[in-house]
Write a structure and sequence with these properties.
Layout: E1 2-10, H1 11-17, E2 23-28, H2 31-39, H3 46-55, H4 64-68, E3 74-82, H5 83-91, E4 96-97, H6 109-114, H7 126-134
Antiparallel strand pairs: 1-3, 1-4, 2-3
Length: 145
Amino acid sequence: MQGRTYYITTLAAWRHYAARFATSHYAHANPANESAAAAGRESPSESNAANIAAQLEPGAKIAAPIALAEPNAKILALVEADEGVHNALAADPEWEALPHPLTNKPVSVAAAAALAAHGVTPGATTFDVAEAVSRAHPILAYRVF
């Protein structure tokens, strides 16, 4: 059975596990990083491009913003995967799972600080985080189905 969970992680950590996800969407924690990458103001080094290519399946292609973004950039990722993948992510220190969106538990102070550029404040719940980030990335909005 597939489950969806929101995580704070880095782009490099997301790339490491991406092949194991059923689906995944993400938004940069700092939208300025994403805008710079999309505009092409940052260019990947040859070694970075080679590292990215080595992580892909043969013949796979990646979007330019993914290739151009800083690998250690923080992202909010919505991951749909089976229980084994979510267990692996929970065991990886680079991945911070946010509480279920329908619980009334606040996200960590570190998660709120990382997403402050989206208007997330300390004490915000995962539902608040998803709503704030979905203003820029509608697919990250919380949906029951």
